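Re: that backbone. Tokens:
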């Protein structure tokens, strides 16, 4: 019997969620995603410290944000040696509410990849799914720069991303699950909220159905998993980005995996685009999404600051 990982790959494109490119090859993922927290985690390992030091040295005297982007791209280039598909590289989360600055930073990151001989088709620029981030992605997509909209928790965020014709979205399964579990406290029933009933799984399944029903080409990539059950419940989703720990669990098991999400036989017409006011109101109405989006941006910003500090220490 093939492993669960191999079975999953029959229905879904498997993506590795890590900055640790030396770990990647054993799972043979199609793509890889990174974020500030994953890169920070990687550069603190002895295996990767020289890569950071070399990149900082090569760009000595340049602006801090320029060095950071070069570090991110350097990791991306190493990852692209291992995966046959795409790498996602994130714009600084501290720019999440600045459309123009996000566009400028994304163009620079893509320029660094292109200067290294990597075509645009192999890079996704990760941007937080704020209204400003989604509008930045709209501009970038029109320029042929493909985007991955991250920190996505609310249905309205997915609607706006579809309207903007972004390449891919990353709805966060595990963080949605975390919020509902915390809210329920002692009343939480793990068995009753597992598999198809998991609140994070339900959120992604709804978005997937909406996109497919309305002929929206944006790819859906479930992200931020807490357990294998959440992954198996989304077999058939366009893509799933999975941490090395959970990839290893899937590889070690031969339990059967059945397809859960399937596109409809008929496609309806697209709905009217969501206005900024409607988006902001819908997001405000969703307490989970409001809290998790803000918390996610803050956490990524903290880790971006720590990476800045490491680079500055190396320059001293």
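Recovered sequence:
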């Amino acid at each position: 019997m093939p492993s669960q990982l191999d079975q999953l790959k029959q229905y879904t494109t498997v993506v590795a969620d890590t900055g640790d490119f030396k770990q990647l090859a054993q799972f043979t993922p199609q793509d890889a995603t990174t974020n500030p927290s994953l890169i920070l985690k990687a550069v603190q390992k002895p295996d990767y410290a020289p890569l950071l030091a070399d990149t900082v040295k090569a760009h000595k005297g340049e602006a801090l944000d320029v060095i950071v982007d070069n570090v991110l791209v350097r990791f991306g280039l190493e990852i692209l040696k291992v995966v046959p598909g795409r790498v996602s590289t994130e714009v600084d989360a501290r720019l999440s509410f600045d459309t123009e600055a996000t566009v400028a930073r994304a163009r620079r990151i893509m320029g660094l990849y292109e200067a290294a001989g990597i075509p645009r088709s192999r890079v996704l620029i990760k941007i937080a799914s704020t209204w400003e981030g989604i509008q930045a992605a709209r501009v970038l997509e029109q320029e042929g720069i493909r985007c991955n909209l991250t920190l996505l928790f609310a249905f309205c965020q997915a609607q706006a991303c579809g309207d903007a014709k972004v390449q891919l979205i990353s709805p966060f399964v595990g963080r949605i699950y975390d919020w509902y579990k915390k809210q329920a406290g002692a009343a939480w029933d793990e068995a009753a909220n597992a598999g198809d009933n998991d609140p994070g799984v339900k959120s992604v399944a709804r978005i997937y159905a909406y996109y497919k029903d309305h002929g929206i080409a944006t790819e859906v990539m479930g992200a931020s998993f807490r357990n294998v059950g959440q992954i198996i419940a989304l077999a058939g989703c366009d893509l799933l980005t999975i941490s090395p720990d959970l990839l290893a669990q899937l590889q070690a098991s031969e339990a059967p995996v059945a397809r859960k999400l399937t596109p409809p036989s008929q496609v309806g017409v697209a709905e009217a685009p969501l206005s900024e006011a409607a988006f902001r109101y819908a997001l405000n109405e969703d307490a989970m999404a409001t809290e998790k989006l803000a918390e996610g941006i803050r956490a990524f910003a903290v880790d971006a600051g720590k990476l800045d500090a490491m680079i500055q220490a190396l320059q001293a």
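The chain is about 50% helix and 10% strand. Residues 287-315 form the longest helix (29 residues).
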